Amino acid sequence: MGRVHAVQGWILPVAAVVFVALAIGAMAGWLFWDEPITRWVVDARTSGLDAFFRRVSSMGSTRVVIVVSVLAALAAWRRCPRLAIAIVVVALTRPFAEAVIKELVSRDRPIGDRLVNGEGFSFPSGHPLATAASWGMLPLVVALYTRRRWLWWAVATAVWTLALFVAASRVYLGVHFTSDVFAGLVLAVLGVAGAERFITATHGGCGSRGCLEVDDVDPELVDRPVLDAPT
Q1: Which residues fall within 8 angstroms of residue 158, CB to CB, at 6 or more apart?
Q2: What is the pTM of this model?
Q3: More confident residue, 207 or 9
């Protein structure tokens, strides 16, 4: 994500602006597309999809994301303690940030047609935010242990695909609007980017052998690790 931002520096500022715009729109009731999308999704329900999206949604539950964050932090600690600290910080601050934003926006959840219980306000959706903020850290951990880019891309694609499916499940189950889940994903992207920035700012970087300085790796002998020190 840091490399993408280095090339396309507008992405994260635009993401922040989009999140703020969605929050304001949710507060003011301007997000007119949410109700039609919810009605269309509800009309498309089947028993098979009901079971599938219930299971997918559970991947963003509190119990699951806590386990994922703990395991990711333990795996990262051996090679890059700063990444482990960042994972813990994101895991601890995420529910508080979510609660504060929900109280500020105070958007009611969709009315009726819920397949699961939903408590509190609707914006942003906590499940995709929690999924991306926990599972989304796994590519950073994988980058500490391998130089195989195909493996890193496979993990990154899998975890962010999971986050998208969890987001879709919350709309399908009738407990969130589309803008709620999209805002949750945007906020998670900003959080993961912040974790990368923290690691880079406090140390040279984390390579596949751990927290490294640039001179620790001879570029003539090895490929650059997925998550490496800036040059």
Answers
A1: none
A2: 0.80
A3: 9
